[in-house]
Amino acid sequence: MGYGMSRLEDEYSEHEGQSSDGLSSAQMNNEFSKLHNDIFHMTHLRSGPSESIRKSIGINKHAVSVTRLLRGREVNSSGTGKFFSVDRAFILGHYLPVDGPEIVDRMNSRAYVSQFSADGSLFVAGFQGSHIRIYDVDKGWEVHKDIHARSLRWTISDVSLSPDQRFLVYASLAPIIHIVNVGTASKESYANVTDIHDGLDFSQHEDVRYSFGLFSVKFSTDGRELVAGSNDDSIYVYDLQADKLTLRLPAHTSDVNTVAFADETGNLIYSGSDDNLCKVWDRRCLSTGEPAGVLTGHLHGITHIDSRGDGRCFISNGKDQAIKMWDIRKMTSNADGSENRVPAWDYTNSRYPQQYKQQKHPHDQSLATYRGHSVLRTLIRCYFSPTYSTGQKYIYTGSYDASICIYDVVSGSQVAKLHKGHELAVRDCSWHPFDPMLVSSSWDGRIAKWSRTCSEQDTCELD
After folding, report:
1. pLDDT by residue (tens digit) across 227-257?
2. Domain ranges for the chain
3. Among 131, 142, 154, 412, which is least packed, fewest CB within 10 Å?
4. pTM assigned to the model
C-alpha cells in the first residue's frame, strides 16, 4: 500500500551519512568510474562546457568566471551571438538552488504533491485536506487558484497540469479523476459550485469488478490522454477527446504506484510497482497483454518514476532506500520480482532494516544506484534536473528525514542536502525549468522555496 496512516505529529529522524548502504564517497565514486554507457557520456556532453570554451580557456586552466563567459558571448565567440545550449547548462548547472529556504505557504494539512508548469510561470501543490493551490510564480507567488477537491478519499494522491496549462487533473484513492479548467475567473474553485470538476470514471472498463484507488496520473505531451496507475495492479489510459477509457492493463502483481510516458510520442509507458519491478509497455503491440520488457534491481517496492524524455532512460525511487537509473535497452522479456528478494517489511511503521542495506539484487539491470535519502511511510518522488539549465546532470529527491537530496548523475556523489526548511517528510519537490529555484512540499504543510543568486565573482569548475 502506498500511504501511511500514522499521525502527522509522529516524527522520524534518520541519523546517517551520505550513503545509507554503508559505502564511503570514495567507494561510490570508484563504482561509478567503472560505468560505461552512452547515457552518462551524453549527460556529460549536454551539461557542457563546449569545446570552444575549453579551447578559449586553455588546457591548464581549471576554472572560468561567469563574467568572462558573458564577455565571450558579447564578442560573439560562438558565432551565434548567444551561448551554446551546453554552455548555458554548464554555467547554470553550477548554481544549485541551496540558499534559503523561503516559506511560500503553510497549510494545516500534509502537502503530498507539487510541480512547476512547463514554462515555470505556475506552481501547483496538493494537500491532504482537500486543497490544491496554484501559485502565480511571476506575481510574487500569489494564489492564482484555490481548488477545493471533490469526493476526496484520504488525500490528493497526484495532480497533473495539461501542457497548455488550461486544465488540471487530480486523483485520490478512488477510481474517479477530476478535471478542472484553471483559466476561469474565479480564484476559489468549489466543485460544481463556482467551477465544474468533471469526473472521469476509470472503472468503466468491462474487466473492473470492484472499486480501487489511483496513485499516479500524468498528461500525455499532446494533452490528449491521461495515463494512471492504481492499487488494483493495473495501468489505465483515458482518451480526453473521446471522453472514454481506452485501455486497462493488468500490469503488475501488486499496487502500481507510478506511471510515466517515456517521451513525446506517447507510445511507450513506464510503470513501477510494489512487486519491485519496473516495466516498459509499447502501446503499438499490446495484443498479448505482455510488457515490452522488464527491469529488475530494486529489492522493495517502487515509489516513483521519472523519464529522461528520450524514450530510453528513466529513474525510479524505491522502498529499498535507493534511486536507480535504467536504460531500457537492457530490459529482458520477463522477470520474477520475488526471486532472491529480501524479506518483506512494513515501510509505513519502521525504519529500513540495517541488514538489508548491504544486499544487492543478483540480477540488477540498473545502470547506477544513488543512496543517501530516506523512503518511508509515503511514496517519495525523484526527478531529473531540468534540461535547459543543467543538461539533466543531476537527480533530486525528497526524503523522509525532512530533507531534499541532489545527486550528480555521472559521479553518483550527493552534491547537496537541503535540510533546514521542513520538520517532517518531504514527499515531493520540483526544480524550476529555467531558473536555479527548487520548491519542496512536506508533511509539515509547508511549501518552501530554495534558490541561488549568482555573483560576478562566481567561477565554474571544468571537469
Report:
1. 999 999 999 999 999 999 999 999 999 999 9
2. 48-92
3. 142
4. 0.89
